[in-house]
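Thread: quick sanity check before group meeting

JM: Hey all, I'm pulling together slides for Thursday and realized we never actually wrote out the predicted structure for the chain we discussed last week. Dropping the sequence here so it's in one place. If anyone has concerns about the input, flag it before I start.
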Amino acid sequence: MEFQNTLSAAQALDHQFAAQTRREDFFMPQKNGKEVIYFTGNSLGLQPKSARKYIELEMSKWEKRGVEGHFNIHEQWYDYHKMLRKPLADLVGADALEVVAMNTLTVNLHLLMASFFRPEGKRSKILMEAAAFPSDQYVAESQSSFHGLNPQENVIEFLPREGELTLRTEDMIAKIKEVGDELALVLLGGVNYYTGQFFDIEAISKAGHEVGAVVGLDLAHTVGNLPLKLHEWDIDFAAWCSYKYLNSSPGGISGIFVHNKHHQNPALPRLTGWWGYEESTRFKMKKGFVPEPNIDAWQMSNAPILLLAAHRASLEMFEEVGGVQALRKKSKVLTAFLESIILEVSQEEDYPIQIITPSDPEERGCQLSLLVRQQGRSLFEKLEAAGVIGDWREPDVIRLAPVPLYNTFEDMFNFGQMLREAIQTLSKV
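JM (edit): ok, ran it. Output follows.
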């Protein structure tokens, strides 16, 4: 794609993608009396203005009805989570009874691995990407230790080629085949949080299953960012958070997917709780767990209604714009426009910035990771002072996430002006 780095060109693109932009429906942070350029939706999405309405509605039920809010009223709490099934299923490419919102991400990864990481004999290895998000690393290490295995030997990694920072699909598949019948689980982040690389999930899933392994995903940086087809890709399980691209409050509710081929497998163990018990007889309080015949069997506790209410506000917005598929069309152009501006400014100012996120739009979502070895921290601080909220990752990477729901092409143009000014200021020091 070729772009003109002008305000009029940015405004024309904003007009073209007006239907996929809901900026007016979010609260935009301000600095020095002006709206910031918010590039950290990959850490915490902005607050939908409707979130307060939905939370207040549930607060009102609590105020006026107390415990009776659970039953016999419109949108009762007992099965409130069911309202979120369809929008969640649409986001991840699943059947409605394969997804549920519950708990938090790392808790859910542990619960799912209790079911799906079952080391036996030499089939005990966990394979994950190098430099995965720390929580994923800690989950894999602790699960290995829990089973009496040595994490240093048992958790192995996909490694980039020497001199490269991202992974090649053919190398990942070769590694899966190399580990072969020792491989119990492929645990993959859909998008690597550091580089922004979007992995070929379908190819990895097929390769993992061909050697007899289970395939699980952490979709924290993927859900709401890129279209997914978890059921079609035959993923065994997945978990995600809702506070990044799903804009559903700090530390908001997580979600899980379990392929329906596993739902009624009596040999599959799980850690159980009351809310996963057969719904029709749950209140008889009998001993002996009888699971719901779907994803709800993995639930343990009744749902945190206020978190679900915040989640509902964002999920409705995704539905209203035509889903993540519609947003993806804008996202590709928005990210490419930002990329072109950064490269143009870097070249014209003779300031070395390397974008380590893949240049192929099919291998990334709405994130660009900039490797800045020359005064990188100082550049980040200059941008921050100018009103850019980005993300610094040690030792020398700035992450920027142009989120299509609320970032505009005019934001990208304005960022380019700020970037140029910051570089010029640093050059004078």
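AS: nice. The radius of gyration is 23 Å. The mean pLDDT is 97.
JM: adding both to the slides.
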